[in-house]
Design a protein that fits this description.
This protein is 47% helix and 10% strand. It is of the alpha+beta class. Helix 1 crosses helix 4. The longest helix has 22 residues.
Length: 150
């Protein structure tokens, strides 16, 4: 599970419509997104059941007025999903800061994306588990940056 309070994630969480499926990253989340209403600072253990109920079978949740939450069967999968929703929020905030209307993504395209994304959903047929290649690349990049510091 990954939970953050990034500026972009919180910005989208504060919008009534939440995340729109009108950019490359958000379109990949079509059908994968849940929402949970803000209940204040999370100190009530009874909210756990309500969070689980709000999440349902979705891997990504926008906590209204709060932030982002992503779950996955392992860290590489959760991190790749998190990176996608974070980028989707960043792009939405950037697009909304520009003049003019946003270009919607057509329903047919949104409905086709799960089949298109299946190509990247490794873990079947002996390939690496989902998100593993992305995770490995991030770790190599982090090591290169760390090596530059020492």
């Amino acid at each position: 599970m990954i939970h953050t309070h990034t500026t972009a994630g919180m910005g989208v969480a504060c919008k009534k419509e939440g995340l729109r499926y009108d950019n490359f990253y958000s379109a990949q989340l079509h059908g994968l997104l849940a929402f949970h209403d803000f209940e204040g600072i999370t100190t009530d253990v009874n909210e756990q059941g309500r969070l689980v109920k709000s999440l349902g079978d979705k891997p990504v949740m926008i906590l209204r007025n709060h932030g982002l939450l992503v779950v996955g069967p392992h860290l590489p999968h959760a991190l790749s999903q998190y990176w996608t929703v974070q980028r989707a929020c960043e792009v939405q905030l950037a697009a909304d800061s520009l003049a003019g209307e946003n270009q919607p993504v057509g329903k047919e395209v949104l409905e086709a994306i799960p089949a298109q994304a299946a190509f990247f959903r490794a873990g079947k047929g002996g390939g690496p588990r989902r998100g593993q290649l992305f995770f490995d690349a991030l770790m190599r990049r982090a090591k290169l940056r760390y090596d530059d510091l020492v």
